[in-house]
Amino acid sequence: MVLHAGVADGGARATAILARVSYRIALATAAAYPDLDDDGRLVLDALRAAGHTAEPVVWDDASIEWEDYDAVVLRGTWDYSRRYDDFLGWMWKIKDKALALNQEPLVRYYADKRYLRDYESEGVDIVPTQFVTVHDPTLEHDYLGVEHIVRPSISGGLLEARRFGPGDAEASKAELEKIKAAGKTAMISPYVESDLERSGVSLIYLDGEFSHAVARSLHIAPDSDPSDELRPGEDVVDIEPTEGERRLADFALSRGVTESPLYARVDLIRTPKDAPWLIEVQLVEPVLFLGRVPGLAEKFAGQIVARIEKAANA
User: Fold this and answer.
1) How many CB atoms lie within 10 A of CB 287?
2) Three-state SS annotation for 224-285
3) How high does pLDDT run on average in the chain?
4) How does pLDDT run across 226-239, given as a tens digit for each residue?
């Protein structure tokens, strides 16, 4: 790190704080997104504008010397679920080489959606889900007679999700067998058609504080191929969360956490009586929709730097 010469006239207060010291920060991404996604580019630009050396770095690039960075932030590692063991091994390695601002224990816990069973055991309403492990002897499951989705428990959002109808029992069981054959746990849920009226709701938290919320409409075509792309398309609108949604999201991020994650997104299904269902808690690679709030990327960049400074002064 080096001392920064100064701040341009008219810069915002956040930029002034950022520019006191210059850090070298790696924004870890996947090979398919070498130039980052939309959120990542906004953060990259904000850090650079404040005088820091911020760089997109492919996480599994063996040539990278992680010791050369003051901090590493996950901001595009969309392939983590398909290379789970390699990814966790990398997370374990870099935490001794640079400041990993995404805490490895939280990443490991929330990367596998079996954590939903812990929430359910604590009385949280989750989207009804059946988990099937490699040790379960049958391919029969509770949702063969209805529209449902099948996916590995380690998957990014709806990546690798397949949708089946009530007449697709054999295809559904074949997908389940495929997941089990790969040594993975499968999760099966009823397919809840989500549009912007009966929506999935995402509450975004930055540096432990609620930031903003959006309604998202994600659709999975019955004949979708999960290998087509790393990220599915979606429609998004800005919303204000209800009291029940805030209460559930706040609880989801408070349980068993000694240090707030750098960022998180809590995904819910909105219900008429304000008793939302938890879909998942995303701490690994959620889209944060930073561009929907003016100045938010700059604020988030400041929070990144504040965490680096806190660790440096510890």
Assistant:
1) 18
2) CCCCCCCCCCCEEEEECCCHHHHHHHHHHHHCCCCCCCCEEEEEEECCCCCCCEEEEEECCC
3) 87
4) 555 555 567 889 99
